[in-house]
Amino acid sequence: MKKLQKMMVAAIGAAAVLIASGCASAPKAAEMVWSDNILVNGDFEAGQGNWTPWIDSGWGGAGEVTWDNGIATLRIDEMGEQPWAVAMHYKKVTFEKGARYVARFKMKSDMERVVRFSIGNGLAPADPPYLEYQDIVVGTDWQTYEFEFVMKFRTNKFGRLDFNCAYNPGMFLPEGHVWKDEAKLKATGAATVYIDDVEVRKLAAAAE
């Protein structure tokens, strides 16, 4: 028995030496790559396609969302009282628990604006979001924005992307706050936001 044990120890030691010297290789970790875009018509070449406009007059919003020449255009005539009073959504995106995703898109405006972008549950309750609210200061030149997140909640086939264009920094300040009126003045008035090349990709093992 002792002789057999010594032979087994010697064999294990020899295997370790082979691996260390490169004669044998340890199992490789799977290479991870970003998937293709999981959104359909993220470049708006098919017009509206899978996208949904949202003009919430109940909260005082007024405007129009159109899709022409491969660009989504959100015209804000009245901001209203909530960020989503003029918005655009993409619904029914599957997000898997534990998976890592990246969202990427281009955006500009005809005047400086704050656009609130988020990813979350398309069914009630919408909170908490899968990707925390991103309050983006949008300028007059095209710029690419990119956000990564890990899906911490259970797998959901009803995920949703939100571009909320009726946001101003004074909305959630209490009445009487020294900055509330100034923030509102800076953000009011008609404006137009342009969005293009929206992508969501999932990090996955590369195909062999």
Structure description:
Pfam families: CBM_4_9. Residues 37-164 form the CBM-cenC domain. 13% of the residues lie in helices and 46% in strands. With 208 residues, the protein is mostly beta strands. Strands 1, 3, 4, 6, 9 and 11 form a 6-stranded antiparallel β-sheet that branches. A 5-stranded antiparallel β-sheet has the order 2-5-10-7-8, with no helix packed on it. A hairpin with a 2-residue loop joins strand 3 and strand 4 (71-78). It is globular and about 60 Å long. Mean pLDDT is 83; it is low at 2-22.
Features:
208 residues, mainly beta, Jelly Rolls, 6-stranded antiparallel β-sheet, 5-stranded antiparallel β-sheet, 2 helices, 46% strand, disordered N terminus, Galactose-bd-like_sf, signal, Carbohydrate binding domain-containing protein
The CATH topology assignment is Jelly Rolls
Cα Rg: 25 Å
CATH architectural label: Sandwich
- H/E element string? HEEEEEEEEEEHE
> Main beta sheet, described?
6 strands, antiparallel
What is the typical, i.e. mean, pLDDT? 83
- What share of the residues does DSSP label as strand, in percent? over 45%
| Outline | globular
Q: What percent of residues adopt helix (DSSP H or I)?
A: 10-25%
The domain tally reads 1
| Strand tally | 11
Distance N to C terminus: 44 Å
Q: What's the assembly state of these chains?
A: single chain
Q: Give the low-pLDDT segments.
A: 2-22
The level-1 CATH class? Mainly Beta
Name of the CATH superfamily: Galactose-binding domain-like
Structural class: mainly beta
- Helix segment tally: 2
Pfam families: CBM_4_9 (PF02018)
Domain CBM-cenC: 37-164
GO molecular function: hydrolase activity, acting on glycosyl bonds
Organism: Teretinema zuelzerae
